[in-house]
Amino acid sequence: MGIRVAVAGASGYAGGELLRLLAGHPEFDLVAATAHSQAGAHVSAVHPQLTGLDLTLSATDATGLADADLVFLALPHGQSAALAAQLPAGLKIVDLGADFRLEDAELWRRYYGGEHAGTWTYGLPELPGQRELIATADRVANTGCYAATVTLALAPLIAAGLADPSDVVVVASSGTSGAGRNAKVNLLGSEVMGDLSPYKVGAHQHVPEMKQATGATSLSMTPVLAPMPRGILATVTACFARNGDPRQVLSDAYANDAFVHVLPEGQWPHTAATLGSNSCHLQATVDVDSGRMIVVSALDNLGKGAAGQAVQCANLMSGLPETMGLSVFGVAP
After folding, report:
1. Of 145, 239, 280, 313, which one is the catalytic site residue?
2. Active site residue 145
3. Each residue's pLDDT tens digit, 153-184
4. Predicted model pTM
């Protein structure tokens, strides 16, 4: 018998990806998966890609989850805290939502609304010292998808004193799965295909998380909805605080990390190369006109940006190799 795991919110895109990864994990035994409107449905009726997995979705309540050793909460933002409060104190939890990411209660109220539920250990193992904190934690707040993409590109540059934390600009394009599975007119195929559209300009909820994780004091972000199901491509620019090579700083920072890859000179990240993987691809250069550093970062928003990252954290929390059950390599074409 392996480590018993359960997934709440298994009918969503991130929940479905979690089920796929857990079904193939050598040490995790998937014992329960819950949903709201899809409760009672066989998993293959909700996620056809999981045909062959004998699992029926049950209603989301604490009783159905409490028998697990570790629970993943793949619920909409603002819904995890109430369920987590009903689960046993010693039960390990990885929350894929935003409920426990922010340290500042006022920022939570400003960007999400309602009362702040508290702060859990932040789930990005590649940040300095974070891997050790995750390994000893019972409660982990998984990194947001945009935040993971930008933080991996920026945090080492600010930590090294190379990037000016007071002037960071991000333009990031994301696939439609990042908006969740609920039906919305702006996410219909006819609306998205052949189109790029900005949204939440100047007020995206991941900005305070990015600042908290990277040390940036001013960060302007323009998110763009792209006509693809999954993937994020972020272009991060910043002024130099001192002379140095941003690409070398990133290469040194991630030299021993399995999932973050600084690409060879002249090779630029693209989302398709990270599809289905838990990897983030980075490249850096200096703009010949403005003198600003430019870092381009790509990852799968359902992989390293959500479910893959959650499994990576769960591996650490369970005393397992953090790469277990996760692929470094993307799926192409």
Report:
1. 145
2. yes
3. 999 999 999 999 999 999 999 998 876 767 67
4. 0.95
